[in-house]
Amino acid sequence: MTAEPRVVVHPDKQALADAAGARLVTALLDAQTRKPEAQIALTGGSMGSAILASAARTPGRSAVDWSRVRVWWGDERYLPAGDPDRNDTQNDKAGLRDLGLDPAKVHRVAGPDASDSAEASADAYAQSIREHGQHEWDLVLFGVGPDGHVASLFPHHPAQRTTDAIAVAVHDSPKPPPDRVSLTFECFERSREVWFLVSGEDKAEAVSAALTPGTDRWDVPAAGPRGTDATLWLVDAAAASRLG
After folding, report:
1. pLDDT for 133-144, tens place per residue?
2. What does DSSP say about strands 38-42 and 180-183: parallel, antiparallel, or unpaired?
């Protein structure tokens, strides 16, 4: 069973980031009461970084044992380490490095400086997930593109249909850069909580389409992922402007 989507509207992007940052701290605390480590898959983009910056300022952040948080990314651009367009670089700059995480538990996707191909990076990333016993995500964060894509799973792109795999190499991405590594829909199905973080009027149509009953994820990938315990759409007023 999966949880039906619930929409929480905030007045603007900063209010959304601050509320989501506080919610993130609480979710990690809850996860650490259930198990030795909290497992989270992060997202890049402006909202993915904004929530980390807000979490770093949240007074309750000190209650989280950050050494017991294992961090992954739902997708990554196949670019060299430190490239400003990489999701992990953007998250680091926003404050990820300041949270007190154990660097050995921050799992980054290898770029062309450290692997022979996006396929090799996807295989290595999947193997790392297996080795660290990730049978269920405590929390997966998604940004949503104006076309409704999540991670690097784009509308009508064959990577969407990958099965029996944790991660997949994505080529010919409609959004640059063309080469990426993404976790699969099948992998995301093992999530307790799924949060969509969406800001801006340019995303309003995608939000509305994803939340319309019966929408096929082939057309709007954001319609696909759901958590077993919670599926939250955390949006600002502009992104929610086309909801009924």
Report:
1. 667 899 999 999
2. unpaired
Read off the pLDDT of residues 152-189 as tens digits, 9 standing for 90 and up.
999 999 999 999 999 999 999 999 999 999 999 999 99
* DSSP notation for the chain: --PPEEEEEESSHHHHHHHHHHHHHHHHHHHHHHSSSEEEEE--HHHHHHHHHHHHH-GGGGGS-GGGEEEEESEEES--TT-TTSHHHHHHHHTGGGS---GGGB-PPP-TTT-S-HHHHHHHHHHHHHHTT-SSEEEEEE---TT--BTTB-TT-GGGG--S-SEEEE-S-SSSSS-EEEE-HHHHTSEEEEEEEE-SGGGHHHHHHHTSTT--TTT-GGGS---SSEEEEEEETTTTTT--
Cβ within 8 Å of residue 74, ≥6 positions away: 41, 42, 43, 140, 141, 142, 150, 151, 182, 183, 188
User: Which of 197, 221, 217 lies closest to 140, judged by CA?
Assistant: 197
pLDDT at residue 86 is higher than 70: yes
Instruction: Tell me what the pLDDT averaged over the chain comes to.
Output: 96
Contact 141, 96 (CB under 8 A): no
Burial (0-12, 13-18, 19+ Cβ within 10 Å), 156? exposed
**CA–CA distance, 234 with 109 (Å, rounded to integer):** 26
For the question of whether the overall pTM of this predicted structure is more than 0.90, the answer is yes
